[in-house]
Write a structure and sequence with these properties.
A two-stranded antiparallel ribbon has the order 1-2. The chain has 7 helices and 2 strands; from the N terminus they run ααββααααα. Strand 1 and strand 2 form a beta hairpin. With 161 residues, it is mainly alpha-helical. The protein starts with a helix and ends with a helix.
């Protein structure tokens, strides 16, 4: 029954096959985790790290509303998600405010996911990611302006209250 549900819905989630592989590995590992009636989980199992990575990626994609570019295959979408997730985690590490990261997500959704032909998506996301580090670049200005406009709006809203 699980496989019927997965096959019917796997197009909804690009990581369905990979997640299923990790779950199957975990179930297999679980069977080997019992010794003399006691549970001894393998905390260093490779499936744990892979599953954690997939969850982190899904969190970033969902939290910031990253859209799938039109007409790309699952492999390209997987790479796109990896690139965007890595960039978001880097921006967080560099101290970018959440509003700035949301502006970055909005920018790539509008200018890459909505416009770029499928064959150029990974090239364009790479260019965009590099531009976030260049003061004065279009990406930098757009994310900065959107963040500043939101702050001005919030200050104005606080003034009215």
């Amino acid at each position: 029954m699980y496989y019927d549900i997965e096959n019917a819905t796997k197009d909804l989630f690009s990581t369905g096959d990979s997640t299923a592989e990790q779950i199957n590995a975990a179930l297999s590992d679980l069977g080997r985790s019992f010794s003399a009636g006691a549970f001894h989980p393998n905390l260093a199992a490779s499936w744990r790290a892979k599953l954690k990575e997939e969850v982190k990626e899904l969190d970033v994609i969902n939290m910031f509303g990253i859209k799938r570019p039109k007409s790309i295959d699952d492999k390209t979408w997987e790479k796109y998600q990896e690139d965007v997730t890595a960039k978001v985690l880097l921006l967080e590490k560099q101290g970018w405010a959440v509003d700035g990261i949301k502006a970055y997500a909005k920018y790539i959704n509008k200018n890459i996911a909505g416009k770029v032909p499928s064959g150029n998506v990974l090239v364009e996301i790479d260019k965009c990611n590099k531009q976030t580090q260049l003061v004065g670049s279009e990406v930098f200005k757009k994310t900065l302006i959107q963040t500043q406009e939101k702050k001005k709006y919030l200050l104005h809203l606080n003034y009215l209250i």
